[in-house]
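Morning run. Coffee first, then this:
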Amino acid sequence: MQLLLALILVILVAGLVYSILYTIGYALHRLRTPPNKVKKLQWYVGLGLGCWLLIVGLSAWGGAFMNFTASPPRMLLVSLPGLIATLFLLRSRHFVAGLKAIPRSWLLFAQTYRVFLELLLWFGFTIGMVPFHLTFVGFNYDIVVGLTAIPAGLLFFRKGRLLRFEAIVWNTFGLILLLYNSFIFLISLPYSFQVFDIEPSNSFMTQFPFIWIPAFLVPLAAALHLFSLRQLMIPEQRRRFSIRRKT
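And here it is:
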């Protein structure tokens, strides 16, 4: 059963990587970027993501994250590269131009993957691999964001409608919930600051491929919220003018 969970997670990550590359291609095509440059950028991004996932996966396979006495705690650092990359992108005018070119609803719809992740954790709980407090039957309410992602995208960004304030509130709520769940995860690890010493341990996330949850899936959820908030800060008139000028 653990092998099945691992396979499902690998498929989920692969699907998300493909979605990222597709969205990049869509945005660049709308900005009239030459096809050869589109392919090149997609290749670079795919290579970068693939290398990061491979490095983290091989490190986990070798037990690098099982050392709970290392300082600073290695599991505290595994999400940092993704968060740093997100902040870097938010400061890039080229990236912001790409944000203008994609539908606002897409960044909300993408959060639906959190439903599949929560179901995967719940299934892990039923087979005795995941502690209950990391699932929606315990203290993890992340599934709420995933379940409301599509309705929120349809409601906030219907044709001719932009509920900017409501979308900002939804994204802010999602970020706060993500921080809360990450905090619960961290204080459940067998470090000196452990609070939840419950069996089974959540140290399964230090293993391959589950290390991809804190190394890729959690930073991606944060990035989608931050990208959506940045997109919402772009005035509607300026957004339309920018896309029209490119086309």
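Residues 2-246 form one domain. Good start to the day.
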